[in-house]
User: Which sequence fits this backbone?
């Protein structure tokens, strides 16, 4: 469970600090390009380091592309606790510094039970950090769901399929959930009906899927790799609606598919501990947005170690939160992000008597 996050020279975050209350549900609000997605991205990188020794900047090409322009160092620090059943406090950070030859040097550091440690080098990871850090960060997911990806027929040969960052893989994940955890699948359906009352039942059926596989051929004693497209049997999502039965997912509204994708991640047997969501209100009616937050709160109550951090532009969603759950981000004239919790506003006591949170 995260309690505090500090971003130093991470994109527009020259020196940003976020302090989370104990509700486990936190909203990032602010104008476009105010740094909301950067907070989620920074935490996503931190969680990746708890999974394996990987280059967390593989999609960014190099650290300098996410370091504040003109700066030669960047760091992200998070602190929190893991409760199972006793509270174990921890702190973890990664930082990158430019070297004399214009390269970049990585350093990870951590502290648990007041015992500090660190590692140097790009291949470092939190795999060697104490268990509370790994437990808190390992099962984190970062989602920017796309309705068209959620609706696509898909195939997975994984023992436990999962919904990917962009929404790919929903159908096989639902198929697994229906067969292996029918009680959770039923809970998912009931929650989806609350958010989108027009839904009657969620189903999965077999469908043709094109997959690309790597093949090897031997030519003159040398192995050559090539890619081969193959049509195989996968799954696609279908829904019974108040307008008809067995409607394929690609004919269902964007908001319905996005809500289904979110719930599939949150109600999975391998439920994540930290969920990072971008633009959580996409495609949803204001009433559905309010119900989504109510569902989030219920899911959190069932898992003491689950935490959801999301960005939003919706006052309807913010209305369902308390001021201490809302972090307001803005840019100054120099493009530097500033962040304050809404309950830090000097007029908060007056506002709580007069205004809704949103």
Assistant:
């Amino acid at each position: 469970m995260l309690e505090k996050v500090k971003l130093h020279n991470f994109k527009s975050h020259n020196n940003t600090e976020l302090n989370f209350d104990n509700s486990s549900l936190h909203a990032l609000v602010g104008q476009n390009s105010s740094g909301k997605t950067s907070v989620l991205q920074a935490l996503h990188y931190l969680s990746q380091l708890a999974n394996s020794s990987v280059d967390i900047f593989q999609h960014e090409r190099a650290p300098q592309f996410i370091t504040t322009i003109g700066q030669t160092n960047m760091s992200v620090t998070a602190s929190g606790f893991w409760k199972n059943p006793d509270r174990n406090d921890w702190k973890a950070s990664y930082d990158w510094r430019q070297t004399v030859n214009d390269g970049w040097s990585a350093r990870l550091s951590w502290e648990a039970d007041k015992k500090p440690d660190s590692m140097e080098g790009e291949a470092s990871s939190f795999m060697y950090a104490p268990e509370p850090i790994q437990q808190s960060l390992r099962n984190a997911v970062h989602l920017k769901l796309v309705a068209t990806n959620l609706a696509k027929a898909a195939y997975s040969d994984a023992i436990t399929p999962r919904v990917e960052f962009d929404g790919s893989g929903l159908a096989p994940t639902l198929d697994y959930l229906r067969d292996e955890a029918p009680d959770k699948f039923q809970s998912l359906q009931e929650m989806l009906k609350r958010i989108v009352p027009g839904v009657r039942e969620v189903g999965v059926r077999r469908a043709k899927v094109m997959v690309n596989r790597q093949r090897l051929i031997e030519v003159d004693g040398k192995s050559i790799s090539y890619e081969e497209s193959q049509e195989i049997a996968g799954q696609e999502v279908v829904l019974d609606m108040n307008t008809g039965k067995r409607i394929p997912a690609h004919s269902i509204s964007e908001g319905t598919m996005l809500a289904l994708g979110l719930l599939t991640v949150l109600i999975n047997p391998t439920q994540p501990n930290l969920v990072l969501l971008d633009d959580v209100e996409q495609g949803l009616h204001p009433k559905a947005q309010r119900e989504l937050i109510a569902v989030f709160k219920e899911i959190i109550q069932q898992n003491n170690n689950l935490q959801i951090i999301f960005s939003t532009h919706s006052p309807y969603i913010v209305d369902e939160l308390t001021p201490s759950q809302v972090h307001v981000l803005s840019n100054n004239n120099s493009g530097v992000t500033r962040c304050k919790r809404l309950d830090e506003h000097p007029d908060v006591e007056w506002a709580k008597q007069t205004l809704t949170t949103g």
DSSP finds nine helices and 15 strands in the chain. The CA atoms of residues 139 and 270 lie 8 Å apart. The first strand starts at residue 2 and ends at 10. The mean pLDDT is 89.
